[in-house]
Amino acid sequence: MARVIASSAFVLDDVYRSFFYMRLWLTLGWRDIRARYRRTVLGPFWTVASAAVLIFSLGGVYSILWKVDISIFLPYFSAGYIVWTLIVANTNESTAAFTAGQDIIRSYRMPYSMHILRVLWRNILVFMHALSVHLVVVLFIGAGLNWNFLLVIPGLALVVLNSLWVGIAIATICTRFRDVAQVVASIMQVMFFVTPIFWQADRISSQPLAELVLVRANPLFHLVDVVRRPLIGEIPSYESYVFLTISLVVGLFAVATLMGRSYRRLSYWL
Q: Is the confidence at residue 4, as pLDDT, over 80?
């Protein structure tokens, strides 16, 4: 029991200390973005352009298939899709967070979790670029924005903080077992189709079991919805805020308790 408590304290202290290195991981995340798009013409806007093509093309097709007014469906889909890309990028890139920062880990005594924050920060920067696509959609259909848009801030905070403990868990496992990264990527591909991203959650309201599994008990739905609803001028449900707050507290302490000993051995696995 004493070892478990000591290992848990190590992880929680590591997360706490990582925020004292904010300037470092902010700089590293920014350098990652610059390196990724060096010698390109549009830079990060290549991502924006591809997202815009997908949103407008699939948005038009699915509005016809689902028989939903495009002025309602297109903002719903665009908002959900750009939030989903943020969540997927955070999850998939966390698999290599520690291996990508192995030179720093081997050379300096710094918090491991700052490498996860580095991943989250650079994906937030990309998300900010992708947000322009949604603004174009809103202008295109003439929907406009209201004060509910400000709820994007607490929603995005919940997404990032939950992505932090998930990233720590995934990065630790993938540092020990490198092939797990492919499993994570495959799971996220499947979850795109079973999570209400391009289909609306009320479509299955007449099927209580399906609604419970795919919507109410699906953490990915709540992660998307707390940002998506403010982007389309609505207020997220109280249930989503409660779900994600509980998920944050329980998830962080569960990771600290169950993976504490493995977390301390990261430098030996690199």
A: no
